[in-house]
Structure formats: C-alpha cells, structure tokens
C-alpha cells in the first residue's frame, strides 16, 4: 500500500519539487521532477547548503513519523489540559452548579481537592493519542491520494476543498479510535462516585451496558470532531498561506526553522478559535450523552436548547485555541526533528498560469 501511495505522492502538487514559492513577483528557478530540493540561499555562505530529508514525501516512513507526531501532539496537549476540560464538561452537564470557569475550579477544588482536577487523565491520554495517530497520519495519506485524484491543476484550485475532504476522512477513523476512552473520561469527570480511574470505569461500563457503552457517543463525536478537524486543518493551511503572503516580510525559504514554527503556532491558534466555535454545540451533547443512560443525541439536544448547547464556550475557546496552537507547533517540531519534508504553501502550476494568460 505504502509503495503505491509513495508513487502517487511524487506526482502530487504538494510534493516539494512542484512548489516554488512566489515572492515579490519573482519565481524561483524551475526544479526538474525528481531533483533534490535546495533551500533558497539566505546568504552567500549558505547558498550551497542543501536540505537533507530523512525520507521521501509520501513514503511509508513519512506517514509513520507523521502518525507519531500526531500521538505526541494530541496525547500530551489534551492530557495537560485535563483540569480545564473537566471544568468545561461539568459546566455543560450541570450549569446550575458550575456557573463559570473560576466558579467551576473553586467548587472542584473544594469538593475533590487538587487531585480531583486530574480526574480522567488516563483515558484522555490514551484516547487522544490514538486519535492523534489517525488524525494526522491519515490526513497526510488522504491529502496525497485526493490531490492525485484531482490532478495538479484542480488540486491547486480546489485546495481548500481538498484540505476539508482529507481532514474529514481522517477524523472519521480517528473518532472510532477515540470513542471508548472519551466515554470513560466523561463518566469519571462528571459522575461523582461512579469511578475514579480508568481501571474502575471501563469494567463497570461494560458490565452495565456492554460494548455499546463505549460507542454510543461515536455519532455525536463525529458531529463534534469532524467539523472541528475540517476547520482545524483547512483554516490552518490557508492561514499559513496568508501569513507568508501578507504578513511575514520574507519568503518562507529564507525563514529559520524557529521563525517557521512561530508562524505555525500563530496559524494554529487562529484555527483553534474557529474550531472551538463550530464544534461546541456537539461537544455539549457528547458530554451530557455520556453522563446519562438511555438518552439519545436528539433528546439531549432538544432538552438543552439553543442556549444550553453554548454553555462553557469561553472555556472551550481558551482550551481549544491553546490546544490547537500547541498541537500544530509540536507536530511541526516533530517533522523538523526527524527531518521530514515540509513543503511550502502551494503555488499555481505553470500549466494553469498559461491557461489563464498569467505568463508570457
């Protein structure tokens, strides 16, 4: 499978040899297909420096390391934000008691102590590590496959749709991997006395409701996570493109790795704010659904009403904005560490420029 994907990757418009960044109305010299990609010179001394990658874009090793980057970025960030996530979930399922972020933290500390803020860390770490593996790894796979189905010109013209389709496809599988741990996490965090650890919660859930207990929230998860991930990837990709085009004062190839990672973080935070808004109603439904037995998503949605599904939005914006920015920063840092190909934002293919009369 990986060999066929790698073959397709070499022809796709996101492959580095096809992407020469345009800045200040000048185009870098054409690079023949298959030729090693060279960095644009930052100075006379650096002119001969060549970027050495550890693997080829679209290879099996590339996808595996991208999946590893997803595990690290999602598993660590979600676990670090467990206290905020706990308060947010409690605000959603019991808004009369938990009326705000600070009030929620105060009540949790008073009733459960400092250790209470860490409730649900184990299912969070396991679940979101598995989700990150599928989310980022499969996104790279689907982006390669869909871009080759569209062809070079259409992949550029419809690149936003390509990002949306690739991320939605990846998240479909990622949520199946996440659902069991998400269900256990919500039970631990929102049902006092039910269970304090994953080892207590999982057998109890299976004994009471069977396997269905772990997957009854998968449909609401799709409702929450697929729009979230589509926004996360598409908004990020286009924001990076816009930052390098309108904000960063020099071409990406002339930016240091640190400067590129700063752009990644800023674009990630912007994407995260939009992610939080589009996915929050479904997130509220998931939190309530996993707490209650026998309820359906439609029943929960009807009971919460329009105002109820937006409870805890401010906490979620802070959480998701920070989380998304850190995830992209960590993911890109993993790519830098393992020397993976990181193609610049896409440029209009020469063939399309000729069709549009943009070249002489």
TrEMBL record:
**Where is this protein chiefly located?**
mitochondrion
Q: Where are the transmembrane segments?
A: 313-331
Q: Which Pfam families does the protein's record reference?
A: Mito_carr
Keyword Metal-binding in record: no
Q: Which InterPro entries does this entry report, sorted A to Z? A: MCP_dom_sf, MCP_transmembrane, SLC25A3/Pic2/Mir1-like
Question: Keyword Cell wall biogenesis/degradation: yes or no?
Answer: no
Give a GO cellular-component term.
Answer: mitochondrial inner membrane
Superkingdom as given in the UniProt entry:
Eukaryota
Instruction: Explain the purpose of this protein.
Output: Inorganic ion transporter that transports phosphate or copper ions across the mitochondrial inner membrane into the matrix compartment. Mediates proton-coupled symport of phosphate ions necessary for mitochondrial oxidative phosphorylation of ADP to ATP. Transports copper ions probably in the form of anionic copper(I) complexes to maintain mitochondrial matrix copper pool and to supply copper for cytochrome C oxidase complex assembly. May also play a role in regulation of the mitochondrial permeability transition pore (mPTP).
Q: Identify the gene encoding this protein.
A: SLC25A3
SUBUNIT field:
Interacts with PPIF; the interaction is impaired by CsA.
Name this protein carries in UniProt: Solute carrier family 25 member 3
Q: How does it sit in the membrane?
A: Multi-pass membrane protein
For this protein, the record's PANTHER family field holds:
SOLUTE CARRIER FAMILY 25 (MITOCHONDRIAL CARRIER PHOSPHATE CARRIER), MEMBER 3, LIKE-RELATED-RELATED (PTHR45671), SOLUTE CARRIER FAMILY 25 MEMBER 3 (PTHR45671:SF10)
Task: State the Solcar repeat positions.
Answer: 61-145, 158-242, 259-337
Q: Which family does it belong to?
A: Belongs to the mitochondrial carrier (TC 2.A.29) family.
Swiss-Prot/TrEMBL keywords = Membrane, Mitochondrion, Mitochondrion inner membrane, Repeat, Transit peptide, Transmembrane, Transmembrane helix, Transport
Reaction(s) catalysed by this chain, per the record, are: phosphate(in) + H(+)(in) = phosphate(out) + H(+)(out)
Q: Name one GO biological process term.
A: mitochondrial phosphate ion transmembrane transport
Provide the GO MF annotations for this entry: phosphate transmembrane transporter activity
Question: Where found in the cell?
Answer: Mitochondrion inner membrane
């Amino acid at each position: 499978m990986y060999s066929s994907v790698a073959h397709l990757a070499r022809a796709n418009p996101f492959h580095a040899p096809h992407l020469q960044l345009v800045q200040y109305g000048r185009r870098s010299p054409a690079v023949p297909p298959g030729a090693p990609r060279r960095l644009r010179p930052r100075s006379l001394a650096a002119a001969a420096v060549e970027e050495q990658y550890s693997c080829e874009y679209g290879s099996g090793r590339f996808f595996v390391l991208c999946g590893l980057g997803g595990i690290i970025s999602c598993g660590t960030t979600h676990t670090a934000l467990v206290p905020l996530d706990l308060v947010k979930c409690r605000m959603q399922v019991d808004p009369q008691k938990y009326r705000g972020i600070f009030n929620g933290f105060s009540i949790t500390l008073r009733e459960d102590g400092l250790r209470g803020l860490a409730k649900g860390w184990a299912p969070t770490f396991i679940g979101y590590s598995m989700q990150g593996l599928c989310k980022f790894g499969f996104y790279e796979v689907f982006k390669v496959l869909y871009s080759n189905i569209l062809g070079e010109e259409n992949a550029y013209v419809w690149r936003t749709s390509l990002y949306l389709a690739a991320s939605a496809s990846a998240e479909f599988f990622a949520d199946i991997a996440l659902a069991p741990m998400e269900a256990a996490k919500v039970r631990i965090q929102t049902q006092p006395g039910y269970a304090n650890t994953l080892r207590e919660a999982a057998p109890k859930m299976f004994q009471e409701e069977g396997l269905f207990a772990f997957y009854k929230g998968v449909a609401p998860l799709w409702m929450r996570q697929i729009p979230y991930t589509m926004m996360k990837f598409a908004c990020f990709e286009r924001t990076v493109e816009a930052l390098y085009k309108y904000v960063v004062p020099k071409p990406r190839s002339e930016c240091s790795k640190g400067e590129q990672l700063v752009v990644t973080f800023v674009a990630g935070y912007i994407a995260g704010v939009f992610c939080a808004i589009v996915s929050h109603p479904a997130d509220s439904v998931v939190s309530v659904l996993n707490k209650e037995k026998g309820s359906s998503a439609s029943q929960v949605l009807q009971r919460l009403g329009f105002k109820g599904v937006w409870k805890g939005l401010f906490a979620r914006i802070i959480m998701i904005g920070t989380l998304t920015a850190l995830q992209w920063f960590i993911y890109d840092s993993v790519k830098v560490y393992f020397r993976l190909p990181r193609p610049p934002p896409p440029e209009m293919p020469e063939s399309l420029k000729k069709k549009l009369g943009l070249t002489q």
